[in-house]
Write a structure and sequence with these properties.
Chain lengths: 377, 303
């Protein structure tokens, strides 16, 4: 009997919120998760993503809203009755129990007969490739191995939903990549519905079927990785989607899908996102790879030309990451193929289609009608 | 054959041979320890082998006459049992009670500070003050008895002091704060996410306690038991003041005092004191032997 997910149709979060006194850590989260889906909750620390996860796990009671599994309310059930698996950031392995016994713990709690439990534990250990470490205590394992035990412990129960709270944040960079692949592989082979909390957009984009971007407890945007990557709804989402250059300016004009922004003396043209009015405070967003060093007057694209001085050059293998400062003190990040000297004068340019113009004002707290509109899929 | 001359400093070269000149600072303390503890202790042991002529005459055995007297005289020998009968239940009670109290006080609630201060406060009271208070509060004409009589629950005053119970009360009042403080600090060393993990794995509160908290807390409980046991075992003032020093609370410390103060038999008093230590060591050894079977590694928390 292979480990598989306990099946269900859908998990629905309706206006889920959690307040601590006056302070709303999470508010108005609406999300419908289909069985087998991999959802990433993405946001900076303090955005409410861990609160959302703890509410789902039942470790934090909700103050607003409902959670329904196939139409049945589950937010009133205690954590131990929900049957969700959870993987903690600190792994939370029982230090006094061997790997085997850690994984068997949940089965034991559910009264699974010994022979069956032993078989399932063996299978889970094989799944995360820890056969040689089955009799060790968690303290004798490396961080990556401990994380695999934590995952095996959660999936051995064949949970309807697996919750992961920044599971890779305590691992070093190389191991993080390996474990990311491992988590994706497990998700694909077991078909586990997963909700994954992270602050790392790369992790979220590479793992998830859908992303939920949160800020100060409010949903900013929900969508598939390519929707968010290509069409971020506001500059906060853009920031997470790799738009490292987010420069404030004033909107000079909008005409036929082209916005002209005054960046304090220099004009830049780009694509407006949402409805913008001339004179409004805006942010111009460009990815470092879309910003190019112009090597002649004719190379300037769509009239975008920024004169800047090279400040810092970092070697990144095939390319260089350069920060350049304009005369009025704005810093731009750009990728170049050739290595410029610090202090060198360069001209930066970008296609208007690659330059996004966002309203400076983010949807204010409480007004998340915009976020609801964009709930896609 | 000879390695080139080291260019490291003298301190570094000494350190490589395991000599740390800073350790010289320990010397004064060492002198004090030898003068005030090691020498008197050795002198006391020596005394036990110099029985008085009367003891030798009564019990024989030459230099071992004191030991023969201790184990031969039921009046003295039984004090071991009497002391154990007080110290073991008192220590167990203090440890067992402090676990749920410390668990509850881990949560956040209004008045938590006040409550924990009140629980720890008795630590500042001396045993004599506690005994005095008990006599007034729980005596025949004390508040407890008068209150119980007033509401008609009892006809005759309960005998709560000047017996085994009185000493037990006193040991709990003075011992519980120690146990509570120690257990609280051991408990704070257990990572709360372990319990959260156990919850998500389907463990109810009893299983969480039994399978996760208790095994991680057990070594700490053993240490706490030893400390409160040692504290209770050497009970002296309350055994005399709120106990029944001639009978049920005739503890070893009282016996040693009797030999020393009333019979002026220093060698016998030393023997009793030494054997008190031996009995305590036996109990401590048993508890540590049990403790060595437990998991003692990291408990995941900050403690």
């Amino acid at each position: 009997m292979a480990i598989s997910a306990t099946t269900f149709e859908s998990l629905e979060l309706r206006g889920v919120g959690r307040s601590f006194g006056e302070n709303a850590a999470l508010s108005g989260l609406d999300l419908t998760v289909k069985a087998g889906e991999f959802i990433a909750l993405l946001g900076p620390s303090g955005c409410g993503k861990s609160t959302a996860l703890n509410c789902l796990a039942g470790l934090l009671p909700l103050t607003h809203g409902q959670i329904l599994l196939d139409g049945r309310r589950i937010d009133t059930l205690p954590s131990e009755k929900r049957g969700f698996g959870m993987v903690f950031q600190s792994y939370a392995l029982f230090p006094h129990l061997t790997v085997e016994k850690n994984i068997a713990f949940g089965l034991q709690m559910r009264g699974v007969p010994k022979a069956e439990a032993a078989a399932r534990v063996r299978e889970a250990i094989a799944l995360v490739k820890l056969e040689q470490h089955a009799k060790k205590l968690p303290g004798q394992l490396s961080g990556g191995q401990q994380q695999r035990v934590a995952i095996a412990r959660a999936v051995v129960l064949e949970p309807s939903l697996v919750l992961m709270d920044e599971p890779l944040s305590n691992l070093d960079a190389k191991l993080r990549l390996d474990m990311r692949t491992e988590i994706r592989r497990l998700h694909q082979t077991l078909g586990l519905t997963t909700i994954y909390v992270t602050h790392d957009q790369e992790e979220a984009l590479s793992l998830a079927d859908r992303l939920v971007v949160l800020r100060e407890g409010h949903v900013q945007q929900i969508g598939t990785p390519d929707e968010l990557y290509d069409h971020p709804r506001n500059w906060h989402v853009a920031d997470f989607m790799g738009y490292r250059n987010l420069v404030p300016g004033t909107l000079a004009s909008v005409q036929g899908g082209v916005a002209t922004v005054d960046l304090g003396g220099v004009a830049m043209t780009g694509t407006p996102v949402g409805s913008l009015a001339a004179g409004e405070a805006v942010r111009v967003a460009v990815r470092p790879d879309d910003l190019v060093v112009a090597d002649g007057a004719d190379a300037v694209r769509d009239g975008n030309a920024l004169d800047a001085t090279v400040a810092v050059v970092e070697y990144h293998g095939r390319e260089f990451a350069v920060s350049a400062t304009t005369d009025d003190g704005r810093t731009f990040h750009v990728r170049t193929a050739t290595c410029p000297e610090p202090g060198q004068r360069i001209t930066l340019t970008a296609r208007a289609a690659r330059v996004l113009v966002f309203a400076e004002q983010l949807a204010s707290a409480g007004d998340d009608s915009g976020a609801r509109e964009r709930v896609l899929v | 054959m000879s390695a080139p001359r080291s260019t490291a400093s003298l301190r570094h070269r000494l350190a490589e041979r395991g000599i740390d000149p800073l350790l010289m600072l320990v010397l004064p303390a060492l002198l004090f320890t030898i003068a005030l503890f090691v020498y008197p202790f050795a002198y006391g042991i020596g005394l036990t082998f110099q029985p008085t002529a009367a003891t030798v005459q009564k019990w024989g055995g030459g230099v071992f006459a004191n030991y023969l007297a201790f184990f031969g005289d039921p009046f003295v020998r039984d004090s071991v049992w009497i002391t154990m009968r007080l110290a073991v239940p008192a220590a167990l009670f203090n440890v067992v009670l402090s676990v749920p109290v410390a668990m509850v006080l881990r949560r956040r609630f209004r008045g938590k500070r006040l409550l924990s201060s009140m629980l720890v406060l008795p630590i500042t009271l001396g045993t004599v003050l506690t005994a005095q208070g008990l006599l007034i509060f729980a005596g025949r004409q004390g508040w407890i008895n008068r209150a119980l009589e007033a509401i008609g629950l009892i006809d005759e005053p309960l005998k709560l002091v000047n017996n085994y119970l009185g000493v037990m009360f006193s040991l709990i009042i003075t011992g519980f704060p120690f146990a509570f403080l120690l257990v609280s600090s051991y408990l704070s060393g257990i990572d709360p996410s372990l319990e959260a993990a156990a919850r998500t794995l389907g463990a109810g509160w009893w299983s969480r306690f039994r399978k996760v908290v208790l095994p991680l807390l057990a070594p700490g409980l053993a240490t706490t038991f030893i400390l409160t046991f040692v504290l209770a075992f050497s009970v002296f003032p309350s055994a005399r003041l709120v106990g029944d020093p001639g009978g049920t609370t005739r503890v070893m410390a009282l016996m040693a005092y009797r030999s020393f103060g009333e019979q002026l038999d220093y060698p016998m008093a030393s023997t009793i004191a030494l054997l008190m230590g031996v009995v305590e060591l036996v109990v401590v050894a048993i508890v540590f032997a049990w403790r060595s079977l437990l998991y003692k590694g990291s408990t995941g928390g900050k403690g």
